[in-house]
Amino acid sequence: MDSESDQQPTRSDRLFTGGERPYDPEDLVMATGHDPTPERIEKARQMIEKEGPQVIERYLP
């Protein structure tokens, strides 16, 4: 009774928040609920640089 969706990795399987390892700008973009694009990744990189690594906490439940 395995379905195809059971075999696919979920989005959260690819999202790192800093607890397991330092997160990168792509992880921050995904935490905001958006798909990573070059523009969003660059904006996230700038946010991490300006506000520090704790910036991701505002997007986590």
Describe, in plain words, how this protein is organized in 3D.
The chain has four helices and no strands. The longest helix has 14 residues, at 38-51. It is globular and about 40 Å long. It is mostly helical and 61 residues long. Helix 3 (25-31) packs across helix 4 (38-51). The protein has helices at residues 4-7, 11-14, 25-31, 38-51. It starts with a helix and ends in a 10-residue tail after the last helix.
Put the structure in a nutshell.
This protein has 61 residues and is mostly helical. It is built from 4 helices and no strands.
DSSP helical segment count: 4
Radius of gyration: 13 Å
N-to-C terminal Cα separation, in Å? 32 Å
Silhouette:
globular
Structural class: mainly alpha
SSE string, helix = H, strand = E? HHHH
Low-confidence stretches: none
Features:
single chain; 61 residues; mainly alpha
Write the layout of secondary structure elements.
Blueprint: H1 4-7, H2 11-14, H3 25-31, H4 38-51
Helix pairs in contact: 3-4
